[in-house]
Write a structure and sequence with these properties.
four-stranded mixed beta sheet, 16 helices, 48% helix, elongated
Length: 642
């Protein structure tokens, strides 16, 4: 995918990403050229609702079915997302319009929904379900026209056009439920420029739908499956009574319009749905605040350290200076191995694995190689990368375990390969059982689960063992001072040195750097939006690494000055303090932004949120730990120890 390029094109590419981060992407698939009257296949993806968080496959509801139902072979990411792409009976021909056509059933034989089917359809409509279709791999969108100047004259009203993904299954009005049984498809094509004597080819560049609800009596259909739509607003909507059988017709119309949008830019409509201006201001604000605070922290810590080291290295009055400050007093205990070194090194190994995976995924996505047109590519890439990054996680865990005087490397390697992935798999399996019970397409099928287990034990586990073996054999980290045989007594600590207070203080700065981005990510996950601002995300990730490192160094410095040398576990926990704020924000988002009331959707939300918080704690804790470890080794190497 990444062809050999000279430095100049790379520089231009990175410059273009910096200038317009959200717009550039590699389309991911080759364009399909259609000739006049070529069939354009309409496929169904799934039904989704932000109220239930449970996707369902298209034919879980009694829609019209083709003579043969064919499901598309899906990648791992699509299966995990709950996509079940399937063919539909819609007959659409390139640049050929249809006024109104009956999808199934006839005027004298309409579709009859049983009481059970009617109840199911009514339930899905009341739960705000959306239907997702695709044409030429382009998702359907519903146009929303918003008027910004509502108080002024009609002439001065400015139309703000936005799009929402999919179309609403139906709507409720005065306790009555209505189904959208007529779909008006509007497809936009771009005519390709060709040489003379060649037939014109067309490319699909936008796919819109206008859903309508029209009752059976107002739809006039003939024997050739054609129908006539009622004029104006004379018709009544198609009501679905959940207590009895309902008769209706599923109909559709097709309209084609020429567009100037080129094929390579056809996803821009979907990727610019959020307010980018607010995003820019927020990101710039975060960058300025974080770098300003980071600069202040760096100045304070560097000036204080220089003064400390200069004082310590004076030969005169050494006893007086040792009484003034405390971090040199613990030089004989600062590298004393902590409790449970195997678990600590295993968690840090998983943190390194996560860090490498996230860094590569965001960077590759920023270059445009994980386009939304390649469905499930992001999730698939993340899963495989996490497996293959096991070698780096194992190596770092093995070397640290040896540094902490560990001896059982085989048990340590097994712990690294299974501790974090085991927790993730266990939580996902429990949640999956609940999703299975709801017959949702979001449930991971049993063969896919077996395949994931095979990847875990067949790829990740051996690679972790391999990395751990070489890491354990490598020379341990060189600590600049020797550890005393008898541990030093730790004085009573002030209230602000409490671990939870440290978590609260250390988490503010990293969370402040990324909480705006967190809103967009949560919207993408829980409200079925596309997230494609990976240029912003890469910038935020760099800021997160810098802020976590600096706050971790400050916290460990204060701890050592208080003559508390038990910094290993404390620093790992405190550095991940921003994960606590992510949890608080997730609860705030659940209460204020989502309309979830049922038990299972709430369980899914908090279950997946717990996984996100755990992963984020591992990531930030690992970044902070290694920054603090380098800092501690550096400062103790700079002073003369008798």
């Amino acid at each position: 995918m990444a062809a050999a390029m000279d430095w100049l094109p790379w520089s231009l590419l990175l410059f273009s990403l910096t200038c317009d981060t959200g717009a550039f992407y590699v389309p991911g698939v080759a364009p399909i050229n259609f000739h006049q009257n070529d069939p354009v296949e309409i496929k169904a993806v799934k039904l989704t609702s932000s109220r239930t968080q449970l996707p369902y496959e298209y034919y879980s509801l009694p829609f019209c079915q083709p003579s043969k139902i064919t499901y598309k072979a899906e990648n791992l990411g699509e299966v995990l997302r709950g996509d079940r792409i399937v063919n539909t009976p819609f007959q659409v021909l390139m640049n050929s319009e249809k006024k109104c056509e009956v999808l199934c059933g006839q005027s004298n034989k309409p579709v009859t929904l049983t009481v059970e089917q009617s109840r199911l359809v009514a339930e899905r409509i009341s739960e705000d379900y959306y239907v997702h279709l695709i044409a030429d791999n382009l998702p359907v969108a519903t146009r929303l026209e918003l008027y910004s100047n509502r108080d002024g004259d009609d002439k001065k009203k400015e139309k703000d056009v936005q799009f929402e993904h999919g179309y609403r299954l139906g709507f409720t009005d005065v306790n009555k439920i209505y189904l959208h049984n007529h779909l008006s498809f509007i497809l936009y094509y771009h005519r390709e420029d060709l040489e003379e004597d060649q037939e014109h080819t067309y490319r699909v560049v936008r796919f819109e739908v206008i859903p309508q609800s029209i009752r059976l009596e107002d739809l006039k259909a003939d024997e050739k499956s054609s129908c006539t739509l009622p004029e104006g607003t004379n018709s009544s909507p198609q009501e679905i009574d959940p207590a009895k059988e309902n008769q209706l017709l599923f109909t559709y119309s097709v309209r084609w319009e020429e567009s100037d949008i080129k094929w390579a830019s056809r996803w821009d409509t979907y990727l610019t749905m959020s307010d980018v201006q607010i995003h820019w201001f927020s990101i710039i604000n975060s960058v300025v605040v974080v770098f300003f605070l980071s600069g202040i922290l760096s100045m304070i810590i560097i000036r204080t350290l220089r003064k400390d080291i200069a004082n310590y290295n004076k030969e005169d009055d050494i006893e007086d200076t040792m009484e003034e400050s405390g971090w040199k007093l613990v030089h004989g205990d600062v590298f004393r191995p902590p409790q449970y070194p195997m678990i600590l090194s295993s968690l840090l190994g998983s943190g390194i694995q996560l860090f490498c995976m996230i860094l590569i995924v965001i960077f590759v996505a920023m270059l445009g190689m994980l386009s939304p047109s390649s469905r499930g590519a992001l999730m698939t890439t993340a899963c495989f990368l996490f497996m293959f990054m096991g070698v780096f996680g194992g190596f770092s865990a093995g070397r640290l375990y040896r540094t902490l005087k560990g001896h059982r490397w085989k048990k340590g390697a097994f712990c690294t390969a299974t501790l974090y992935p085991g927790v993730v798999f266990g939580i996902c399996f429990v949640l999956n059982c609940f999703i299975w019970g709801k017959h949702s397409s979001g449930a991971v099928p049993f063969p896919t689960m077996v395949a994931l287990l095979c990847m875990w034990f067949g790829i990740s586990l051996p690679l972790v063992y391999l990395g751990y073996y070489f890491g354990f054999r490598k020379q341990p980290y060189d600590n600049p001072v020797r550890t005393n045989q008898i541990p030093r007594q730790i004085p009573e600590q002030r209230w602000y040195m409490n671990r939870f207070v440290g978590i609260l203080m250390a988490g503010i700065l990293p969370f402040g750097a990324m909480f705006i981005e967190l809103f967009f990510i949560f919207s993408a996950i829980w409200e079925n939006q596309f997230y494609y601002l990976f240029g912003f995300l890469f910038l935020v990730f760099i800021i997160l690494v810098v802020s976590c490192s600096q706050i971790s160094i400050v916290m460990v410095y204060f701890q050592l000055c208080a003559e508390d040398y038990r910094w290993w576990w404390r620093n790992f926990l405190v550095s991940g303090g921003s994960a606590f704020y992510v949890l608080v924000y997730a609860i705030f988002y659940f209460v204020n932004k989502l309309d979830i009331v049922e038990f299972i959707p709430s369980l899914l939300y908090f279950g997946y949120t717990a996984l996100m918080v755990l992963s984020f704690w591992l990531l930030t804790g690992t970044i902070g730990f290694y920054a603090a470890y380098m800092f501690v080794r550096k400062i103790y190497a700079a002073v003369k120890i008798d």
